[in-house]
Amino acid sequence: MNRLEILRFALRGLLANKMRSALTTLGILIGVAAVILLVAVGEGSSQSIQKNIQRLGANTLTISPSFTGGGGGRGGPGGGGGQNTGPRTQARQLTLADAEALADRAAAPSVASVSPVVTAGSATATYEAASHGIGQLVGTYPSYFEAMNRQVARGTYFFNDDVLAARKVMVLGTTVAEELFGDLDPVGRQVSVSGVPFTVVGVLKESGSTGMQDADDVALAPLPAVQQSLTGFGSLGSIVVRATGASATATAQAEVTAVLNQRHGITGTAAADYRILNQATLQETVSEATGTFTVLLAAVAAISLLVGGIGITNIMLVTVTERTREIGIRKAIGAPRGAILGQFLMEATLLSLVGGLSGVLVAFAGTRFTIAGIEPVLVPSSVALALGVSVGIGLFFGGYPANRAAKLRPIQALRHE
Amino acid sequence: MTAPVLRVRDLVKEYGEGDARVRALRGVDLDVDQGDYVAIMGASGSGKSTLMNILGCLDVPTSGSYRIDGADVGLLDEHQLALLRNRRVGFVFQSFNLIPRMSALANVELPLMYGGVGQAERRSRALAALEQVGLSDRLHHEPNQLSGGQQQRVAVARALVTAPALLLADEPTGNLDTSSTRDVLDILDRLSVSGRTIVLITHEDDVAAHAKRVIRLVDGAIVEDRRQAPVDGPPPRLAEAVG
What's the ipTM? Predict the structure, then answer.
């Protein structure tokens, strides 16, 4: 009794009940395909979110003013809260002097560059007849380009000279450039922003939507130029700090905190009047969230795989029960226990293997399509796991009833009706 | 004188527990010699089927010893028992017990397959066994395409194909009409002439008349052991026909 003959017996057994075998296979197919596909969708969405965050620039800290807990809001009913946080002076805005202090190498050695930022809201740019409300008009220093990972596709950046001279030059995002100039090359042309003329020196590379807002609907100009013409020389909107490396962001954050606490007179338990957004922390948080999401999807899929496995168990139980008499006959003419066990195990394995492999094929085909706006990314370990589990289930749950039947005395099996 | 093919000593078989205990066999002693043709008779419930199942190694006795060809069955493990059923014993059932959806040829080849015989030899031996029972023209029919008599002849071929030391038949003609019964009994007679050891169970005197020796069981014990023809001669019916 060699393996080929056992395989032939198993095939004959399965083909005797084509419909039943097909349905069982289908159950496993769906389970395996669901595991692989859903894990791929989860992985795809997590990767696309990560990419979007990375596009905003890694290693950067964004410092923005915070008024929660500031002096103005503390006078309300429940004055006890104010006492808890100790005496507070008026919350201070971020200033250019703050930015200059952060750029001090001695106080903050982990800081590579500091870019003060002012943002003019609702600035309308016009060029000849075309006009466009710029989503974000940013006045800053040239270091901002590197910190935020923005590159110029055409033309040039603006430089420190332009900042010092407060030249009215501008780098446009692709959305703004298209709205105002269409197919024309905007470099060297003049746009007027709220009546003030700016010369376009460059156009940014397209960076794509970050999901919440259009990252290309921006215009960048030297800080003093924007302050002069649009926002006035008041406080800063934010300060973007780039750390010297990805591993230095935490140190940089500590240094920035120390410098700002000192400058703003924040000591002990007092709440800070600024907020630091760490891209690395954000990335970690988001990848944790998407990881949970992937696990959730995988759990749902695993349940369907389990149901498929129970299907195999059920079919093997039925098959063995209704063929107990046949097992008795085979034993009576001298079939060794191994041959009987082998036949039924082979049947169960064939069912789960055929179902599992076609499930993998379906999943491979499925991941070629975009599902709900997400490009699925195949995770090889999920393929191995789903296939392994399906075959394992087949062997284990198929083996149990087969073993029970193979152990019967021939006369018990023969008398079974 | 060689050792008997079958040697049974003080065989007891009980079913059930406590009050519900039934003693199907109460100490049976039996020797069957090489070439003998034994009919075991008895009313229903006399324990003859129980005896047969134990002789065929399908069931185990509660106590007592049993040797086939000198091998003590009680001492064999599961694997050796399977080998014994495969090589030394051929069993013919009352209800044929062919495997459905397998051709006559495949059914006859099955014991050889489990015995590890190569494909070419398997095929030729199965063909020879089917020719012996006169079914060369029904090789590829499945059991449900065969008549009862034909099915039983396939079953006899299956029992014979491994050339066993002992052919056991449990009421082989119980489910057959007269002409099929005659076919099967003719085959058994011919096998006996060729020296095969046969033990069959029946409750019909006509069938028992074919045997060289008739044993009668009542309530699990042997009450009569009558010889109708010598062990090394032809079975009585064939002797009459010749004489």
Answer: 0.89
